[in-house]
């Protein structure tokens, strides 16, 4: 077995499959492109689903890749086990309807055992297979595997819902008896017992059937085309090749761990638990790559995952005694380890460090809040005479504040309390079940469409034409090819001026005419077929025949509106980089007829001043009347040398279309555009909003729609001028400011009168003091104009020693307002208001000293007041 670095292992795998005719597919972003079913790219095949379900036919049916991936379902196991990671690399080779079982198994055995490649000892390799899959057993024997090294496992069948599925065969490496002190042997493998001796390094999935949950597996139909999908974990391979005790004891993690040693003053050893070193090393890799790919920490979705990873890493840093912020300083080390294949981490190093540093600083303030929550929980437990911290509260500290259970336990035990471990585990399991359910929903692939996949005729899109004479080559109706067609159908022509939806630009609409100039069909949509032809969805008015020629005419007004928005999108993208920063990466776009929508990564709301600057810059480029040039003679590398930016989600061939707008914007783009920026006319931003953690959205309009937006704003301003009696629009701001000052003065007077009214009522209200056990209380229905009136009465009560608890309720219009105030160390206002609010069909909450609720059932007020005494006992 050869001694190799992780970079050499990765490259050897790719080189081997390149030598077998595979195309190397670059590693894609961790943020899924055009796949809403996935939160993260979570496997090597995730970016290739379009090939496996047949929606796109690859140029080469043999593909190999090294794909970065993230999975966080078992985040709590990271650092505890030898092989759990949140981010990992999956090496894979894939066959899309080309080779199958015989070649895949032969390739696997050659790569692993040949002296030219990894040179693993054959006697160290053990292989599992699906018991009913005798062909796989026989093939392994044919390539030279000892039958005693082949173990049948019933679980060796890959399927996730409906769609492609099939048996799989897994390859394990035997690390020897040193990792099997009781010498259990192959029983560990055969009975799927967790162990460190037999390490799975490769899984070969024989995608053979179309799974259908409604029928038995034995009746699954065969797929139209059989596929191979494999996955080799790079971290595990490197661990075996470099002789690491765990995956962390390799050159993928040890440089990070050495930096953590320097920061903490502590020493890492493979022979001790060292969980904190491993958690930090793992999590900083995930953070660096995910942020570099455009994901940002936040409160939901991907952002929540990153925030949780960061907080976990910070807390483990504190366990190691690291003081102050430290995570960002580890990013350069991550970048250096991975730069041979992932140079983007070092390229975006400053931005990644900025985001991590800012988020860590915010969390340090959150830690203080978590500490206060622990203190409050423990005080309450003492008051209630309890000795155990509830599992739900432990999970809330863990999940919301990032407090490891060990830290919570330590703090609780210092105060003499126990920990409800079982309750915590139950809460944790509920979250894991929810996460796993979400993954299953999004993991399956679509079924293959054999009819569309079989269309291989040549069809040319004419970028610069608005009409064309074209021959009908293929007609598909209800998933079958037909020669004559009526009703709704899908058509392919030898040439077409109709743009197929792609890259955020909507499809062209238009008509099809016969030789007499009569409209015989309406084109309502155009999409790409699996082989890339423009597939026209049509409503047929008169029968069409394959082989006949027709005139295709697009709706020019629709196309002109769309291209204005598309070219403006390029200008907006460039302006965002100028005003907001180069980290504003495109995260999706839509170029419609009436508007454009542009999603981009950014960690804060775009300010009004920034939006004004962006809008100004785009309009200046429009007024400069810059020529929009399109080049099609460049390779991807040549285009990037010119400074071209690849747009989000695009798949580029050998030669690319490059759209150049002077020296302002150069982007790879397959869409249609104006000939000069002045054709856009006008650009107006109408909305900016957040649509997810770290992702913002701008909606804008151009041309006539932009003029209408400005005109509507002008009309609104004129209406406001009339209402506030400003003689001219320029005087509106001063007039409104004057009215605001008048309003503030009147509000102060109103508050003063409300205070006097409260004082006049208070003497009568506060006379009726009752007791419940050891607690004195006042409970009364009062008449106040608004909820602020209740607060005024509570302020007066606080200044006097009248009772322990105050409960006030008022009917205000059709609603009910409830206030509870407490001076008692036993009665918490927030808890009591939650118990009383249901009497008026309400809900609310607040702090221990004061809380409020709103309701809708005034008839429940008497019952609410009567229940106060009972709730206080």
How would you describe the overall organization of this protein?
With 873 residues, the protein is an alpha+beta fold. It has 5 domains: 6-242, BirA Bifunctional Protein, domain 2 (2-Layer Sandwich), CATH 3.30.930.10; 254-442, no CATH class; 461-554, Elongation Factor Tu (Ef-tu), domain 3, CATH 2.40.30.130; 559-715, Threonyl-tRNA Synthetase, Chain A, domain 2 (2-Layer Sandwich); 764-872, Diaminopimelate Epimerase, Chain A, domain 1, CATH 3.10.310. Helix content is 38%, strand content 25%. The chain is built from 24 helices and 34 strands. Helix 22 (787-798) links the parallel strand 30 and strand 31. It is globular.
Radius of gyration: 34 Å
Please identify the structural class as seen in this structure: alpha+beta
State the CATH class of the largest domain: Alpha Beta
Per CATH, the superfamily of the largest domain is Bira Bifunctional Protein, Domain 2
Q: Cα distance, first to last residue? A: 76 Å
Q: What's a quick, concise take on this entry?
A:
With 873 residues, this protein is an alpha+beta fold. Helices cover 38% and strands 25% of the residues.
């Amino acid at each position: 077995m050869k001694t190799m670095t992780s970079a050499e292992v990765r490259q050897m795998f790719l080189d081997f499959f390149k030598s077998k005719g595979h195309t190397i597919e670059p590693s894609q972003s961790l943020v899924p492109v055009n796949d809403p079913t996935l939160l993260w790219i979570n496997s090597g095949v995730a970016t290739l689903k379009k090939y496996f379900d047949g929606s796109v036919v690859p140029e080469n049916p043999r593909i190999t890749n090294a794909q970065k991936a993230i999975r966080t379902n078992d985040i709590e196991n990271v650092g505890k086990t030898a092989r759990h990671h949140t981010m990992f690399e999956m090496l894979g080779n894939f066959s899309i309807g080309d080779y199958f079982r015989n070649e895949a198994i032969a390739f696997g055995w050659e790569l692993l055992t040949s002296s030219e490649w990894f040179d693993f000892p054959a006697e160290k390799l053990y292989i599992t297979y699906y018991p009913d899959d005798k062909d796989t057993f026989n093939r392994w024997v044919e390539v030279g595997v000892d039958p005693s090294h082949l173990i049948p496992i019933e679980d060796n069948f890959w399927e996730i819902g409906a769609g492609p599925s099939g048996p799989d065969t897994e390859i394990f490496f035997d690390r020897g008896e040193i990792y099997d002190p009781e010498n259990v042997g192959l029983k560990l493998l055969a009975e799927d017992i967790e162990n460190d001796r037999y390490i799975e390094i490769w899984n070969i999935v024989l995608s053979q059937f179309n799974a259908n949950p409604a029928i038995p597996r034995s009746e699954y139909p065969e797929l139209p085309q059989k596929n191979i999908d494999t996955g080799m974990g790079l971290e595990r391979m490197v661990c075996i090749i470099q002789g690491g005790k765990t995956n962390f004891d390799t050159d993928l993690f040890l440089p990070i761990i050495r930096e953590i040693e320097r920061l903490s003053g502590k020493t890492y050893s493979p022979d001790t638990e060292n969980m904190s070193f491993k958690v930090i090393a793992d999590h900083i890799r995930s953070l660096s790559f995910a942020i570099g790919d455009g994901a940002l920490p936040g409160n939901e979705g991907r952002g929540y995952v990153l925030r949780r990873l960061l907080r976990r890493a910070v807390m483990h840093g504190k366990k190691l005694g690291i003081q102050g912020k430290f995570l960002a300083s580890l990013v350069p080390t991550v970048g250096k380890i991975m730069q041979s294949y992932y140079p983007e981490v070092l390229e975006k190093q400053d931005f990644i460090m900025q985001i991590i540093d800012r988020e860590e600083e915010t969390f340090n303030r959150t830690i203080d809040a978590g500490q206060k929550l622990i203190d409050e929980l423990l005080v309450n437990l003492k008051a209630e005479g309890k000795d155990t911290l509830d599992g739900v509260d432990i999970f809330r500290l863990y999940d919301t504040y990032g407090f490891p259970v060990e830290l919570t336990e330590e703090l609780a035990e210092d105060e003499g309390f126990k920990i409800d471990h079982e309750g915590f585990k139950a809460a944790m399991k509920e979250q894991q079940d929810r996460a796993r359910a979400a993954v299953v929903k999004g993991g399956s692939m679509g079924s293959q469409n054999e009819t569309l996949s079989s269309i291989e005729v040549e069809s040319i899109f004419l970028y610069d034409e608005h009409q064309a004479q074209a021959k009908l080559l293929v007609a598909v109706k209800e998933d079958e090819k037909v020669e004559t067609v009526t009703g709704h159908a899908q058509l392919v022509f030898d040439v077409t001026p109709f743009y197929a939806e792609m890259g955020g630009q909507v499809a062209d609409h238009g008509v099809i005419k016969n030789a007499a100039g009569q409209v015989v069909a309406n084109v309502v949509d155009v999409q790409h077929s699996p082989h890339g032809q423009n597939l026209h969805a049509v409503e047929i008015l008169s029968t069409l025949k394959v082989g006949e020629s027709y005139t295709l005419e697009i709706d020019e007004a629709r196309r002109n509106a769309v291209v204005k928005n598309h070219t403006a999108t390029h200008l907006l993208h460039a302006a965002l980089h100028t005003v907001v920063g180069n980290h504003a990466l495109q995260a999706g776009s839509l170029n419609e007829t009436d508007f454009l929508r542009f999603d981009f990564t950014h960690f804060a709301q775009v300010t009004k001043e920034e939006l004004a600057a962006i809008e100004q810059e785009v309009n200046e480029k429009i007024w400069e009347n810059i020529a929009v040039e399109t080049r099609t003679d460049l390779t991807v590398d040549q285009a990037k040398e010119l400074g071209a930016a690849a747009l989000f989600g695009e798949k580029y061939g050998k030669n690319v279309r490059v759209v150049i707008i002077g020296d302002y914007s150069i982007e790879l783009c397959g869409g249609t555009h104006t000939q000069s920026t002045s054709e856009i006319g006008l650009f107006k931003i109408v909305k900016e909003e957040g649509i997810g953690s770290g992702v913002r959205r701008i909606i804008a309009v151009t041309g006539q729609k932009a003029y209408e937006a400005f005109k509507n704003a002008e009309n609104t301003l004129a209406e406001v001028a009339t209402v506030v009696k400003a003689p001219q629009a320029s005087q509106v701001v001063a007039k409104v400011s004057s009215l605001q000052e008048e309003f503030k003065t009147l509000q102060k007077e109103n508050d003063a009168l409300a205070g006097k009214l409260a004082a006049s009522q208070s003497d009568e209200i506060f006379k009726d003091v009752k007791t419940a056990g050891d607690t004195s209380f006042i409970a009364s229905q009062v008449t106040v104009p608004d909820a602020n009136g209740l607060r005024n009465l509570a302020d007066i009560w606080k200044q006097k020693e009248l009772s322990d608890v105050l409960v006030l309720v008022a009917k205000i219009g059709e609603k009910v307002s409830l206030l509870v105030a407490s001076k008692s160390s036993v009665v918490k206002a927030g808890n009591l208001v939650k118990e009383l609010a249901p009497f008026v069909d309400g809900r609310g909450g607040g702090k221990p000293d004061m809380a409020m609720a709103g309701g809708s059932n005034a008839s429940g007020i008497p019952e609410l007041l009567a229940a106060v005494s009972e709730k206080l006992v």
